[in-house]
Amino acid sequence: MSTLVGRGLVVTVLVVVTLLYLLPLWGAFTTSLKTDEEIDLTSPIAWPQRPTASGYIGAFNHLKRALLNSVLITVGGTFGSVGLGAICGYVLALHSFPGANLVFLLLAAGIFLPFQAILIPLFQTVRALRLYDTIGGIVLAHTAYGIPMCAVMFKTFYSEVPKALVRQALTDGSSPWRFYWRVVLPSTKLATVTILIFQFTSIWNELLFGLVLGGPRSMPATVALNNLVGTLAAQWNIQMAGSLLLAVPVLIVYAFLGRYLVRGYMAGAVTAV
Amino acid sequence: MSQNFRRKGIGHWLSRHPFIILALPLGLVGYFVYGGMFWNAWVSFTNWRGLTPTYAFYGFQNYSRLFGSAVFAVALKNTLLLFLTIPVCIVVGFILAVLLDQNIRGTGIFRNLLLLPYALSFVVTGTIWAWMYNPSKGILNALLRQIGLARWQGMWHTSQETVMYAIVLALVWQFSGYAALVLLAGIRSVPEVQIKAALLEGATRFRIYRKIIVPQLKGAVMTVVIVIMMYALRAFDFIWVLTGGGPGYASHTLSIMMYKEAFQATRFAYAAAIANVLLGLTLILVLPYLYWMHRRAGQ
Amino acid sequence: MASVTVKNLFVSYHRGRTIAVDHVSFAVEDGKFCVLLGPSGCGKTTILHCIAGLIRPTSGEIIIGERVVTSTEKNIFVRPQERNVAMVFQEYALYPNLTVRENLAFPLECQRLPKKEIAARVQSVAELLGITDLLHRRPAQLSGGQRQRVALGRALVRQPTVFLLDEPLGNLDAQLRVQVRYELKRIQRQLRATMIYVTHDQTEALTLADKIVLLRSGKIEQEGSPQEMYEKPANLFVAGFIGSPPMNFIEGQVLTCEGMLLIDAGIFKVRAEALGIAKNLAPGTKVMLGVRPADINARPSSPQDLLLPAIVDLLEPLGDSAVVHVLSGNFKFTAKWEGGSLKPGGLVSLFLNPRKIHVFTLPDGMRVSKIEDGAAGRAEEAFP
Ligand SMILES: Nc1ncnc2c1ncn2[C@@H]1O[C@H](COP(=O)(O)OP(=O)(O)OP(=O)(O)O)[C@@H](O)[C@H]1O
Ligand SMILES: [Mg+2]
User: Does B41 map to a domain?
Assistant: First the structure.
């Protein structure tokens, strides 16, 4: 495609396809700024004649408690799963021990598990621990089920640290944990950021655990938005504003840390899934 | 020496037994993943209803009821129908990847924008598509009216006939940017020198793609297949938000059915059996992939 | 087959901030083996890619045979596939998904040749290179040397007008390198092919080339036959780059003593006349003297020979001979030793024929031409 015509064609097709892909988001945005009457009268993708924030105010009033819950759940679940996953990844990548391969295989297989297959035991356990309808219960679930993915991703990244360096450090008398803090962690900052962001967006976006383990006090914003849709069937401006509110953290990450997100998708895809 | 004496305590003990620290993460995974799996399997052979602690062994009755159920047949069919997303995404993703691979400056921005839907929550996109497909106020019908194709207006996700295709279309929208990303990375990982050599040997662009690049995309294609397949198997959130499994049972998948049986009808044992079928299906589909990966890694 | 002419080739990257090739001109006659030699990063690959048409130069002209294939002035650019040149890449660039047979057939299929002819040509090239047993294998199942042969075969099978080879032996072990080098030369002679061969290994260049073009930082330092480059290096860089073990250098100054011109090198003084240089040097001029290790001998070869008493520092036995590192005063140098046994720490007397000493003026490092160079010597041009 070295000819000018070819290039023009390629760019044109890309522009058209991209606009098509962004159309739903654009439509959601314009609708979120309209009043009920205007939604009935104007084209769904037309810019509102009198943009109003009433949709956002309405949505925020419905979602504010749940958004706070989501923040707590996401922070807790991200640090829990990434922290514990990092430990597994470190040991598996740089310290061999009997059965390490089996442990890795079992962890990797955990990624493929459909959540439905453990949902009932999870529900029962959380109830038995008196954690039903608490932030803690949902954080526990995200931590436990996030570990396999984090461990496998960390193992892949940590495997790039030369094994000779580990042997050197251990013969120099460094403990494995000192080596981790002083050498491995500082030299793999990118990997840590990548996995943190990957987990952050996955947990923020997740619905099922919140639906099953959360109640009125602890439900995350995904569940609350879904409930909102169920109760306000006709108020599209509030619904669209709510979806966009829910998307805001992800959009921010996407805009400013998109590089890491892409890296996370690639790593998550290549390692095991 | 003296330092060594001072540094006793838990840190010292941990450094002498470094693998003890794996106990917590592996314990969590062991209990919640593998323990949960066996517990669920056990439940599926009982008649437990969840709220009461008493139950009796029930043998294969849950399974025989399940395999005789018309809803299960629909759910299984729909789950497999979602696999339609895979080839469509690969074709669309490949075309996009080729377009993005033409070394035109500034096209990187398109890659990022096309990936945006994949980053969003299925709850967000489900809500947005519910409005897109809304027969009276949604974008889709409005646009069809505007461009003079009013005849093509449809009921989309509110009609039993079209609901699954509407879901597949939306999922293609959400996943094809991701497919393009992975396939583009695959195309880019073909060493440039091979392409230069082929150019020099007189190969056309088309021939280079067909004979040299595409055959080397096996890994990337497999990745896309497995990621979308895993999603299709557990597909819950998007469909739950868009249709709740309706109209009627028309968009029930195994995971929707399982959720409803467990947490709306509190038939835990029956739901556990559904979950087990889903698990079995996953194993059947994933094990060959894992074997293939293993063999490739060995090569 | 065809000749190749490169005129004023200039390639820059980063909007002129990196200059990869800086106004390079040279010509390769039909059927000759030309080696582009130079240290890493000097622009060899870039030149080759320009000839192949894989890079459009910033400016310059390239002519293959009678045809101008690249000319920025006349705005001509023939696409790579229409140049009928074959290239063996540094990394081989075998297609991993195709078998050896399919790899060899690929360029012919691109030309839409009939199946029968493709099969025949693949077969004959495979026989020429001794890879008939490997035709069904994939590149991953081949050893380095076998891959190298397949890469070469893929170029041969096309019967191109020019072969371009980019460090094709770089990934082979030492023994295999010598063997394939020989085979390559044999094939080149047999086909009377025009080959342009890139390497940073001066031994390879000296053994293979009809003509060497020596580059540094994108510029030509010297071009000529291997013998010319060895015997009349145009400057210090060429002198130091060509020859193994490398030339010894010692600084000196031109003095007058009782009406005679002398060069004082510290450990020895030598009459300028004895060096056989074609031009008088002004007293006070600083010079660099260069002596090849092979020109330092255990026995005198003429009555004029300089005697260098020295202490043996280190020996590198080579079997029949040895490279000996010696100290003379505080000057270290190497010599090729073919005499009797030596011990580190022992004393030796070494002889050096002053006619064999190369003289370079400082600070420009240019060679001072000698009487025996003759009127037409290339090095003469440095001293108009
Ligand atoms: N695409 C490019 N963009 C920027 N600089 C480049 C590019 N290609 C080559 N260069 C620069 O041009 C110079 C010459 O590169 P070239 O690859 O021709 O060297 P070479 O002589 O083949 O080296 P080697 O022996 O290591 O292969 C180098 O300094 C390199 O950094
Ligand atoms: Mg090179």
Answer: no
